[in-house]
Fold this protein.
Amino acid sequence: LDDNVGRMVATLEQLGLRDNTIILYLGDNGPNTDRFNGGMLGAKATVHEGGTRNILLMNGPGIVPAGQVVEPLTAHIDLLPTLLNYAGSALPNGVKLDGQNLRPLIENPQREWPERDLFFHWQHRAALRTTDYRLTYERDRASLFDLRVDPGQKKDIAQKEPEVLNQLKARYEAWY
């Protein structure tokens, strides 16, 4: 992978396109076997952090500030509006996306950013991810995790926090 990315960068430089190109590197949602995933619950094809959380690296000299770390909740659905903005393009009239343009956040990671809900649905499993919580449905059983104190989803707090559970369930059901 390193060799091929290096070859691609060298070709972009040869063609005089490097200063006008954003390179993205991202995974595809968790390991599909029992491997290291940062202590998160789940793997590929699950609705847990270990199956949906992913890394994205952006590189674009003079375009994307180097070394920025973005903490607010973002998702793959944000790539199209973000890249359209960098390209100076707009969506055709009437086209609506669920994603958000992340450019303001990339350029200033400390800026205020609105809270949002991210929804996941895979066969008979589902989840709602907020900045602080993850609601999961598996086999018609709802679980709730406070990711601020339990990023590995070790302790289900659904019984302890019924108000939060019901609020998130209502938001998921409205989306579904």
Notes: The longest strand covers residues 133-138. The chain has a mean pLDDT of 92. The beta strands are 23-26, 56-59, 118-122, 125-129, 133-138, 141-146. The longest helix spans residues 162-175.
